[in-house]
Specification:
Layout: H1 4-9, H2 13-21, E1 26-31, H3 38-53, E2 61-63, E3 76-80, H4 84-93, E4 95-97, E5 102-107, E6 115-122, H5 128-143, H6 146-154, H7 165-174, E7 177-185, E8 188-196, H8 204-215, E9 218-220, E10 225-230, H9 264-291, E11 309-310, E12 320-321
Parallel strand pairs: 7-12
Antiparallel strand pairs: 1-3, 1-5, 2-3, 4-5, 4-11, 6-8, 6-10, 7-8, 9-10
Helix pairs in contact: 6-7
Length: 335
């Protein structure tokens, strides 16, 4: 489950307006592990797409995200000018994974995903009965919350113009589902509950406001503890926000060639180093140009075909350590 709001957050508003002017078919790409030196990554993306759909890598357009002064760049890449059936096939594949690069394909008009967040604090087992109890406790708290009720009944455009406010509220409450996830917090297995609903609105800002209202809930019980909504996860391997990096299911797929929890930190470090090196080289080239041409042109490195393969989702079976032992960036995943 990815978050369109989170993915678009780092994209400059002017660039988003430019994206809007690009004709369809078009879609977004996310590079696992970071963009690194964007021009080299640009070539790897072209090769991966061309190899997957068997076309000349120069026949489509690939927008390169701008690189900021600190070496960072927006997550999203925009691909366009690929025939519609082929473009749809790439989006449907969802993942292109090779030894050189791993790409996640997203539709341009990313739909709102009905993942609200993770409730932690209930002392319930990760069983069907535990999930039903968690759902009922959360549902009761939501039903009794006047702010959420009023907001859903007011922002109900996703349900259609013929649906009354009362019907929209009933549909929303009936859509509440939870799924358990086992976390390791302070060396203790802890069950948290991922909350999903049917989004009542297609407006991203309204959806973000609704999620913030859920964040204000504090569900106190006599027998099952007290639960609150925690901040979303941020998987480093894929764009998902419903699981942390150690629990990413993708590396469990047969034949997976992309990053794993054991390798993603080194990949990110290499990406940052490559971005910094590219920025420094650009600065030096600019300084040299101001002082007179040095007559040298840039050199490239051989980039073999990435042997891209489409991979689909799967279920992981590992436990996750949220203190990030041996993975220092995992500390941002939870709590």
């Amino acid at each position: 489950m990815y978050s369109p709001e989170q993915l678009l957050q780092g994209v400059p508003a002017d660039l988003i307006r430019m994206y809007e002017d690009v004709a369809f078919p078009k879609f977004f790409l996310v590079v696992s592990g970071g963009n690194g030196a964007v021009m080299r990554t640009h070539g790897l993306i072209r090769d991966a797409i061309a190899n997957y759909i068997n076309i000349d890598p120069t026949t489509f357009t690939l927008g390169t995200p701008p690189t900021a002064a600190n070496g960072s760049s927006p997550t999203l890449w925009l691909a366009a000018d690929i025939p519609d059936p082929l473009a749809q096939g790439i989006v449907d594949a969802r993942i292109l994974s090779s030894t050189n690069i791993t790409l996640y394909t997203l539709p341009y008009n990313m739909p709102i995903i009905g993942f609200v967040g993770v409730f932690a604090g209930f002392t319930l087992p990760n069983t069907v009965m535990g999930a039903n109890t968690a759902r009922d406790l959360i549902g009761t708290a939501v039903q009794g919350n006047s702010e959420i009720s009023q907001f859903v009944q007011t922002h109900r455009d996703a349900f259609g113009p013929q649906v009354s406010s009362g019907e929209a509220w009933g549909t929303f409450l009936a859509s509440i589902t939870v799924h358990g996830i086992v976390l390791i917090v302070n060396d203790t297995n802890t069950v948290a509950w991922r909350l999903h609903v049917t989004p009542p609105t297609n407006d991203r800002e309204s959806w973000s406001q609704l999620r913030r209202l859920f964040g204000k809930l504090r569900i106190m019980t006599a027998l099952h503890g007290t639960a609150q909504l925690q901040r979303a996860f941020k998987c480093r391997i894929c764009p998902a926000i419903d699981h942390p990096t150690p629990l990413c299911p993708l590396p469990d797929l047969p034949g997976w060639l992309g990053p794993t929890p054991a390798t993603i930190a080194a990949l990110e470090d290499a990406s940052r180093a490559a971005a910094a090196k590219a920025q420094e080289q650009m600065r030096l080239n600019t300084s040299a140009g101001e002082g007179g041409s040095n007559g040298r042109s840039g050199t490239g490195h051989g980039q073999g075909p990435p042997d891209a393969k489409a991979r689909r989702g799967g279920k992981g079976k590992r436990g996750g350590d949220f203190k990030g032992r041996g993975k220092r960036r995992e500390r941002d995943d939870f709590f």
